[in-house]
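$ ./design --mode recover --in tokens.txt
reading tokens...
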């Protein structure tokens, strides 16, 4: 009988110990108060309900925003007299990039001059015939014929003016030169002509490419298993080899609807502001996509978590002299947030900066 009682006692003690082990540890508080000077050094955050964050790491490449890139083509064939820029130069809208000497431009102005002379003669003849017709000296037929010739001369002159306008307008001159200007502000990223060279307007080849990089795109490949983790509007953090300590923040603004038939990946595009122009096209990039799952739990800043001896703790703040060290069980940490399974409730205030000294003081034995 004594042996049975001993066994029951041990079993009960074991069960009691097991139940207590499953509860989050609350360290017995020690009288520690936060001084006024220390109060200025700590940060207090409030635990809140949040969708559980998820992260997806991708690699990609920086590229131009295609909507802010302009390829510049020649208006007419000719010889390159002058090139004012090189690849990498910053240019402003309307800035002269090159000057071309063109027989076509010269011919257009010569034709316009001849058409102007013909128009002047036709107009004078029409006015004379009109006067003679009104005075009964000339027939109506002769007047109408002169008027028709004037209209033809006017049409021909206007046609040549429009042709010149289309082919450079005010950037052309009667001596046969025309000026190539930058259509947008940005950087010269491509230059295909040199001084003294010849160009053809039927070669379908651009002379320059100017790109504005105040905003850039980052293209990344997403494997089929991760497609559900990316959507338009999800936040993205980008780092590069050139600036490993800098984080550039943007959003996914395009998700492809098809997979590459060979690589079986889907393209996504991240749009990034590039105010300091640090990001350059062709740079390799690491992308971290973050999103929120449907499931919710308590969340606090990751920096509020204190890890010691394989356990995680927070300091719960109620007042300057009412501080409690509480063990918490984590679901996971994502970026700068920690998602809590047990140990905290919504509205709890936790110290999330310079709390290590307080933790040591509160847990001293």
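writing sequence...
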């Amino acid at each position: 009988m004594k042996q049975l009682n001993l066994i029951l006692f041990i079993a009960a003690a074991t069960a009691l110990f097991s139940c207590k082990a499953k509860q989050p540890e609350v360290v017995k508080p020690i009288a520690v108060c936060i001084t006024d000077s220390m109060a200025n050094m700590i940060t207090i955050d409030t635990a809140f309900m949040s969708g559980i964050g998820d992260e997806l790491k991708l690699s990609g490449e920086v590229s131009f925003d295609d909507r802010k890139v302009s390829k510049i083509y020649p208006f007419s064939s000719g010889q390159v007299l002058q090139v004012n820029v090189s690849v990498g130069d910053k240019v402003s809208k309307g800035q002269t990039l090159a000057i071309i000497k063109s027989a076509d431009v010269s011919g257009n102005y010569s034709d316009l001059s001849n058409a102007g002379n013909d128009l002047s003669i036709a107009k004078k003849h029409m006015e004379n015939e009109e006067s003679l017709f009104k005075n009964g000296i000339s027939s109506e037929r002769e007047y109408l014929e002169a008027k028709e010739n004037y209209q033809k001369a006017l049409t021909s002159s206007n046609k040549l003016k429009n042709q010149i306008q289309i082919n450079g307008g005010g950037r052309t001159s009667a001596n046969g030169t025309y000026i190539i200007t930058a259509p947008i502000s940005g950087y010269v990223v491509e230059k295909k002509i040199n001084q003294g060279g010849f160009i053809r307007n039927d070669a379908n080849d651009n002379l320059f490419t100017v790109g504005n990089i105040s905003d850039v795109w980052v293209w990344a490949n997403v494997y089929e298993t991760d497609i559900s983790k990316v959507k338009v509007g999800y936040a993205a953090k980008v780092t590069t080899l050139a600036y490993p300590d800098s984080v550039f923040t943007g959003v996914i603004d395009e998700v492809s609807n098809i997979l590459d038939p060979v690589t079986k990946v889907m393209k996504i595009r991240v749009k990034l502001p590039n105010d300091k122009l640090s990001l350059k096209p062709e740079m390799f990039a690491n992308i971290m996509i973050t999103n929120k799952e449907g499931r919710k739990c308590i969340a606090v800043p990751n920096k509020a978590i204190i890890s010691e001896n394989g356990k995680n703790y927070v300091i719960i703040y109620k007042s300057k002299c009412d501080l409690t060290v509480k063990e918490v069980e984590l679901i996971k940490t994502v970026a700068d947030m920690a998602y809590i399974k047990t140990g905290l409730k919504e509205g709890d205030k936790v110290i999330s900066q310079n709390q290590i000294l307080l933790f040591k003081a509160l847990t001293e034995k």
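exit 0
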